[in-house]
Amino acid sequence: xxxxxxxxxxxxxxxxxxxxxxxxxxxxxxxxxxxxxxxxxxxxxxxxxxxxxxxxxxxxxxxxxxxxxxxxxxxxxxxxxxxxxxxxxxxxxxxxxxxxxxxxxxxxxxxxxxxxxxxxxxxxxxxxxxxxxxxxxxxxxxxxxxxxxxxxxxxxxxxxxxxxxxxxxxxxxxxxxxxxxxxxxxxxxxxxxxxxxxxxxxxxxxxxxxxxxxxxxxxxxxxxxxxxxxxxxxxxxxxxxxxxxxxxxxxxxxxxxxxxxxxxxxxxxxxxxxxxxxxxxxxxxxxxxxxxxxxxxxxxxxxxxxxxxxxxxxxxxxxxxxxxxxxxxxxxxxxxxxxxxxxxxxxxxxxxxxxxxxxxxxxxxxxxxxxxxxxxxxxxxx
Length: 382
Fold this sequence. Notes:
The protein is of the alpha+beta class.
């Protein structure tokens, strides 16, 4: 028995090849050695069968993993003529269990007769960054993607002669699938001759090389609604890769990344901002002006004796609510700063204040509560 070639060598790719690289290599070689392009050439026909067998294994993640680990031995059991014991000739002998499975699963096993398998185009995933202000108000962003569009030269048929050069696959009769028997079970798989497309192209188009689509760059404008949150995914139906003539296009998925703001923090529809206050402002009370996420300003009255960490709520000054005219609230958090780098006079005034304060100045609730708990703690130790 002749030794089988390594499947990766058959497809002329490395063992680390991606699924896309495998697919491109397969299509290139299958087109080159297809029997229709090499009539009467037995060597080309044998090579074509090797290419289909190799791709059939390597395109399947589970089969590929088994092959990488055990080589051709992974498919020596189970009977049949191909990897995993499948019979590429397909079908049961007439009568018996074959007829039973035909009646039970006939509709599930693919179409018979003419027509071609229709496969939708691939989806495209992109990420778009927006600022917090853009997420608040909504914005339109241009998005540039690498995609595939219908080939104009052949109108998506993949054939130099157009529809006239496209033939129904002789192996699957246009179904794009073949059936095989393994033990008592019927297994359905993509047709190895047409790779599930249900058709074969005799003379490929020079522009798309038989693909029916060509790679290009497109720029679209994506409308990002007000109130969008970080991580949201927007779906643009039919804006993905073309599926070829008669097949629906894939979708474009735009993942939104909202940039962090140095000023505001967002929690859903609410906005938080930290505002530093001098010690004297917090003690005596004051009025401050704070920025609002919509670009305006708002005044906040700070009462005398305000403690660090207190929040002041501004209703309706928060973030936009998605698909609504409502807005959340804004919370202003006060951060009381301790003065640093005091002048001699400032230090004298603070020392005078501390001396004057003594027991005559009412302590803050937190101050009084803390020392009350300390006193109780030590009394409990006695």
